[in-house]
Amino acid sequence: MDFRPEQTPKLEPESDMTPMVDVTFLLLIFFMVTAAFAMQRSMVVPKPQPKEPVISAIVEEEPADIVVEVDEFNTFHVTADSFEQEAPSEHDLVRVLRQIRERAVGEKPINHMLVKANPEALHEKVVAALDSGAYVGIAEIELLTLD
Which domains does the chain have, with CATH numbers? Predict the structure, then answer.
């Protein structure tokens, strides 16, 4: 009798890649669905021409419904018909603009806002004032830089 160990081929353990591919696709779908796609809005602001004379007087054909002034301390001052309030932050500015629009329900709709910016104010605060007006639904927003 010959005692030879049975020679069976050794099987290497194989890993099934199907669950890993499934998890990868699920993660891809999750990140695609939950990604925030924000629309970037832009406002066309004409560049000043150095050869043009500076106009010191402003002629307003139609007065603005709301005037937002950004002072040198980056504080917002909101003025409307018989309403004046200070808004120290962008959040407060949005709140005040909403209050003004809610008071005007049933009256003449508020569609025009003028932002007066002090030259010492941060550009970020001026843009925040413009964006706040657009956020609450004001259609016409103008920018005026004070000297």
Answer: 66-145 (3.30.420.270)
Residue with tokens 């002072």: 71
* pLDDT-derived band at 129, boundaries 50, 70, 90: very high
Structure-block tokens of residue 65: 């419904």
3-class state of residue 96 by DSSP: helix
Residue with token string 């709709």:
109
Q: What is the DSSP string of 14-35?
A: ----HHHHHHHHHHHHHHHHHS
In this structure, what token pair is assigned to residue 40? 């970037």
Please indicate, yes or no, whether the overall pTM of this predicted structure exceeds 0.85: no
Query: Cα separation of 117 and 71, whole Å?
Result: 7
